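Support reply, case 0932

Customer input (verbatim):
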Amino acid sequence: MTRTGTTTAHLRRALRREIPSTVGLLADEHDFAAMRQYRTFAFDDHATYLRQVEALLKTLSTQGGHTTVTLFDPEEYAAWCAETGTDPDHPTSRSRFTAHLATTGARVTYTGQPLTTLLPELVDTAVRQATWEYATTVLATAGDCATCGEDIGKAAYERAGRLLLRLLEAAGPGTHHLVCSVQAADDQLLAVLHTHGTTPPEDATGPEFTAVLATGIALAAPGGIVLRTTTPDAPDRLHGWRLTDGTLTPLTEAEVFAAYCTDARTGEPLSPEPGVEYHAGLPLAPDPDDDWPAHH
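Our regenerated output:
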């Protein structure tokens, strides 16, 4: 009897390690407050909720299975319940929605990191996914050019890829950190790229950066790119370009300085960063498609 019981328990633990888990997380006070409208939601304050979530994650980790964490959005949950005819005020409904998010939502693998590390990573992943989905939708639905008949989205993505290569070639050796911002409708799209030398990275940040830049090109939306280059035993160098009508124009040194040394929220001046040099945007090598505005 004892031997059989031990074997059964061992088999169950082995099986548990092969079943993945997904935890839906209410990341901020606003989302947490929205869930308190449901009678079956057991928590009264966000801090206690986060402590219990972290304890659950640690327990799942000790069981040896694969655990991912996804953002639980109450508005998206309510819409999903209405669409599927599901009662939102039931734990099973929240569980089913979390399983839905496991295949569609932004998620991060739990590896034992504290919530203070996991939460920013999860939010960043969600923002990147939403940006990617928006950008790819814009490019897929941009239509054909009335002048030349070319697919605008495809052409804009190809142009953005060439512009990225020209930026890195102009920057030269070193470690490069680029940020692209595009004003699209009511949203400010942002993409970040970190790479070494003149070759774009092989991970997802390369296509994401290219897609955001391509969105600005396809929509003829205003935007810009800032580039920070780090090399050994030298100050970091900062450069900037303005995106207008699908074309990158170098900023002046004064414009780059103003962009970095002005608080974007208040407009108040900020002190220059020590060990950093502010430079005008580098001129980019000519490209066959530099007459983009005239053809699209």
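We compared this against your earlier run and they match. Two observations from our side: Residues 4 and 136 are 56 Å apart (CA to CA). The first strand starts at residue 21 and ends at 25. Please reopen the case if you see a mismatch on your end.
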